[in-house]
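Weekly modeling sync, notes
Attendees: AB, CL, MP (scribe)

Item 1: holo prediction request
CL wants a bound-state model with fe (ii) ion before deciding which constructs to order. AB pointed out that an apo prediction alone won't tell us much about the pocket. Agreed to run with the ligand included and paste results into these notes for async review.

Input as submitted:
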Amino acid sequence: MPAVTIKPGIHWIGVNDHTTDLFEGLWPISREGVSYNSYIVKAEKTAIIDLAKSIKVDEYIDRLNEIAKVSDIDYIILNHMEPDHTGILKLIRELASRAEILCSAKAVPMVENFYGITDRVRAVENGEELDLGGKKLKFFMTPFVHWPETMMTYETGSQILFSCDAFGSYGALGGGIFDDKNVDFDFYEKEALRYYANIVASFSTQTLRAIEKLKELPVSVIAPSHGLIWRNNPTRIINLYKQWAEYAKTGGKPAVTVLYGSMYGNTGAMMDAVTQGLTSTGISVDLFDVSRTHGSYILPSLWAKQGVVLGVPTYEGRLFPPAAHFLDLAGRKGMKNKKLAYFGSYGWSGGARRELDKILETLKWELVDSFDFAGGPTMEDFKKGEVFGKNFGNVILDNQ
Ligand SMILES: Cc1cc2nc3c(=O)[nH]c(=O)nc-3n(C[C@H](O)[C@H](O)[C@H](O)COP(=O)(O)O)c2cc1C
Ligand SMILES: [Fe+2]
Ligand SMILES: [Fe+2]
């Protein structure tokens, strides 16, 4: 794919990744892919903004060379040091031998630690401008979105904000790189929320701070380092990120994520009754089998919905392990202010609930309701489960 012009002299020269299975060695992207958006700004001087992971390097250099000879690059701007944007830094720096690396003060030692580069590395300050002769760039420090050194770069003439990971999403670019009418927005917005819940959610306070800091800046294009470039409706992705960041305080929408797991079908059968009760209230429900669904796909639902129903049996005196693992991940990812209802089957003396109580002390989620039953559910149990679901649905709806 050739370079794509965003505005005269400003081009996308990124890399589409369809072969990495796990983003950050953790989050599945084998079906969705991801893009590492890199940009070139050409005026009297030439700057490249963010690079790519160390894949398809030949392709990257070919694309770059279409716009400017790599040896003529004057500045390499690093908004963020994570190797999905800097993996090819060492090589590009060899080729662009006179280029100066510009980054935040916190990134300077990281450039050395990750790549052994110390010469012609300069820290830029918040609000500092770089005159390229005909085009001007301005830097804004946005720490901890999502690393300590993160910053954003703004092109003042076309009002393009190169926001790096902020406003990004999973999903390789399927040809078109812009938020044009024919784009599959359902896919990108779903993948943007999954990316937010997986990567950014723990830093929601800092994300809101960055959005607040940039609120007076006239922005006509949001050009993140992953996913679509928003030129038709940049406020759409800014507002989505703002809404998602605010879920850290509110706990999310009045809706419910049902997480269940079952070895022999007893808890599974009850799950159907509970969900029946829940949906009878009209509340929106997402359902996940915790044993069979990677946490990456559950986190976005959990992040966006205030209610959680957990239905898993006792296993060796404790919670069914996939549920314990997922709750641990949810805690690590800063999922807060949730209301939970628990149900599950046990064989002799139970124990799932006891471990859950301990986990909830750490998570600080509110346990609204709970019931368990021995072995297979009776008709009475099913009726109880349906009422349990209905009551919990109403608690979440009443809490709006
Ligand atoms: C490996 C394993 C460990 C279990 N550990 C316990 C236990 O420590 N305490 C208990 O009361 N039941 C225990 N059980 C029994 C299950 O909780 C019980 O069979 C329950 O009905 C399973 O629900 P399910 O059909 O939804 O998987 C265990 C079952 C298995 C297979
Ligand atoms: Fe990152
Ligand atoms: Fe990234």
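Recorded for review: The domain at 4-249 is CATH 3.60.15.10 (Metallo-beta-lactamase; Chain A).
Action items: CL to compare against the apo run; MP to circulate these notes.
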